[in-house]
Amino acid sequence: MKDLAYRTASSYQQAKQHANDNPEAFWADIAKNFEWHTPWNKVLEYDFHTPEVNWFLGGKLNITENCLDRHLKTQPDKTAIIFEPNDPNDAAQHISYSELHSRVCRAANMLKANGAKKGDRICIYMPMTPELAIAVLACARIGAIHSVVFAGFSATALAARINDAECSILLTADGGFRGAKVTPLKDIADEALTSCPSIKNCIVLKRTGQYVSWNNMDLWWHEELEKVNDNCPAEVMDSEDPLFILYTSGSTGKPKGMVHSCGGYMVYTAYSFQNVFQYQKGDVYWCTADIGWITGHSYIVYGPLAVGATTVMFEGVPSYPDYGRFWEVCAKHKVNQFYTAPTAIRALQKHPVELVNKHDLSSLKVLGSVGEPINAEAWHWYDKHVGKHNCPIVDTWWQTETGGILITSLAGVTPQKPTFATLPMPGVQAVLLDNEGNEIEGETEGILAIKHPWPSIARTIWGDHERYKNVYFSAYPGYYFPGDGALRDAEGNFRITGRVDDVVIVSGHNLGTAPIENALNAHKAVVESAVVGFPHDVKGNALHAFVIPNSEVDPNELTDELRVLVAKTIGPIAKPDRIQVVSGLPKTRSGKIMRRILRKLAAGEYDQLGDVSTLLNPEIIQEIKQNS
Ligand code: PRX
C-alpha cells in the first residue's frame, strides 16, 4: 500500500493547504489508496443542522479486505499481531497476516453458522486476547455490527448495552487475566443474560480454564470453530453501512451508542495512524489501550492493520509482575512506537526509575499520549526516562465520537509543545468559540468546535438520532461540539483544558456523573446525590460523591454499600474515591444543584467559591467544609 504519511514539514504544509482549499479532493486522494469493490460517486454530503454526514457515497468495500486480504499479496508472512500475555512466563504469539486472515474467516463462518448476518448486532465482552481482535474483524467480515463492551464493566452495564442494541449473539470468555486478578467474565455475562431477551447464542472462549456454569444457549468457541472452514468471502458493504457501535458515557444515565460507518472510518484511521506515529514498514507499534475503548478499535486493530503494520496486543497491566512491565515488553519486542495514557505514566513515575533504566529502550522512536491532558511533570518524565530526549511525543486529542485523532503533532515532522496537543490534522478544521458561539481568533481560550466533517465522525447514536443532534450539534449550530474547552497559543497550538460538561475523565476513562448518581440514588437509604470530579495526582481526576441519606444510617456502612453498588451497576472504574454524607446540597432557588460550588468544595478551593448568597441554603457550605 502507498505510504499515507507526510514525512517532511513541506509535504505536511502542502497537505494542509490542499485540505483547506479543497477538502473533498483532499480526502478523495487519500481514499483512492484503498480497495473498493465499487468506487464512490460523491465524496461528501453533509448538513450539521439535521445532522447528516455521508462520506464516499455509493462506494462499496469491506474493511477486512483492506486490513487482511490486500496484504496477503505482498506480505503474507509478516507479523500482523504480536500477542503478549498477562503472565511474562507464557510465550508471546506472533500471528502473521495470512494466519490472521484464516482465523478471522473461520470465526466469521462460526458466526454465520450460528445465524449471524449483515446488520445484526453482536456484543463482544472479552479479555485482551487475539480472539478479541479476531472477533471484531470476523463481525466486520460478514457485515455484522460489533459492539465491544470493556471487560471491566458490570453485569448491569453489559445488559444495558446488549439491550440497547438488541444484540443477537454474545461473544465472551470463561474469564480474563489482568495482573494478579482473574475476572469471571462468564459469570458476569450469565448474570447479564438473565435480562437480555435478544441474545440467542453465547459463544465462550476458553482462556483461564476456570469452572463455568453452562446454559442452553452457551457454546464453546473452540468447538464451534471445528465445525467450519476458513473460506469466507467478505460481505460487500456500502461505505455508509454501520461498522460498529461503541458506547460512551453521556450526561444522562443512558450510555450513548456511537455508530461508526465503514468507508470513512477505514480511511481516517489508516491515514491518521500512519501520519501521527510516522509508522514505517518493518516497525513494531504498541498501543497499550484495551480494545474495549475507541483507542483500541482505531489504533490497535483497524488503523494499524489497514496499513499492514505489526501491532502489539497486551493482555496485562503496567504494574504486574512489577512496575517495569511496559518497558520489559518494549525491550522484548523491540517496540518502535509506544502509545499510552497519562494516567499510566503518572502511576509509573512514582516508582524507582531503575525499573525503566534496566530495560533496553533503544528501539523506541515515537511516544504517544491519549485520553486526557498530559501534565508537564508527566510529559517531562516520559520524555527524559522513556524517550531519553530522543523520541518525539505525540499528544493526541480525540474522542469515541471522532473515531480518530483530530489534534496532534506528527512525530518528528511538526513541532511538539509539552501539554499542548498542538495542531489539527490536515483536513480537520478546529476552531474556538465564545459562549455565544462566535468564532474567536488568535491567542485565546474558548470552547473547542469542529466546523467541517472529517471521514470518521460518528454518524449517529444508535436508536436516538435526536440525542445525537442535541448533544453534539445544538449548542453551537453549524459546528460539531465535542464538550471540551481549549486554549490556543500565538502559533495556533491547542491545549485541551478539560470537559465543559458533566463528564469526568478518570484515569483516562470517560465517566458521566449522571449514571453514577443514578446508581447511588438506587440505594434505599439515599435521597439525593451529586458526583463531581476533583484533581488527583495519578488518575488526573477522581470522583467525589455527596450523598444525602434518608434516615439515621451509619455513614461508614452506607459508603461501603454505595461503593459496591456503583461497582455492580457500572463497574469498578466508576467507584467514587470519596463519598461524603451530607444533610443537603447547595441549590439555586429554582432547586438546581450548584455543581460549580461542589467542584470547588471537592477540590478544597474554599476561597474560590464565588458568590454563594443567591443559594437557597448557603448554610450547607459550612457543613460540607467541616466534615469533608
Ligand atoms: O476530554 C477529552 C479527553 O477525553 C475525551 C474523550 O474521551 P473518550 O471518548 O473516552 O476517548 C478517549 C480516547 C480518545 C475528550 O473529550 N481527551 C482525550 N485525549 C486527550 C483528551 N484531553 C486532553 N488531551 C488529550 N490528548
Could you write a compact summary of the structure shown?
The protein is of the alpha/beta class. The protein folds into 2 domains: 9-472, ANL, N-terminal domain (Rossmann fold, 3-Layer(aba) Sandwich); 502-626, GMP Synthetase, Chain A, domain 3.
Q: What is the CATH H-level superfamily of the largest domain?
A: ANL, N-terminal domain
Structural class: alpha/beta
By CATH reckoning, the class of the largest domain would read Alpha Beta
Q: Which of globular, elongated, flat, extended, rod-shaped describes the shape?
A: globular
Q: What's the Cα radius of gyration?
A: 24 Å
Count every helix, treating DSSP H or I runs of 4 or more residues as helices. 19
| N-to-C span | 59 Å
Largest sheet: 8 strands, mixed
Number of domains: 2
Number of E-type strands: 31
CATH architecture of the largest domain, please? 3-Layer(aba) Sandwich
What's the structural blueprint in terms of helices and strands?
Elements (H helix, E strand, L loop, with lengths): L8 H13 L1 H9 L10 E6 L4 E6 L2 E2 L1 H12 L4 E6 L8 E4 H17 L7 E5 L4 H13 L2 E4 L6 H11 L3 E5 L2 E3 L2 E3 L1 H9 L7 E5 L12 E3 H6 L10 E2 L3 E7 L7 E6 H16 L6 E4 L6 H13 L3 E5 L10 H9 L3 E4 L1 H8 L4 H4 L8 E5 L5 H11 L6 E4 L33 E4 L5 E2 L3 E7 L9 E2 L3 H8 L11 E5 L5 E6 L3 E4 L2 E4 H9 L4 E11 L3 E10 L5 H15 L8 E4 L13 H9 L15 H8 L2
Parallel strand pairs: 4-17, 6-7, 6-8, 7-14, 8-11, 11-12, 16-17, 16-18, 18-19, 19-20, 30-31
Antiparallel strand pairs: 1-2, 3-13, 4-5, 9-10, 14-15, 15-24, 21-22, 21-23, 23-25, 25-26, 27-28, 29-30
The structure holds adenosine-5'-monophosphate-propyl ester (PRX).
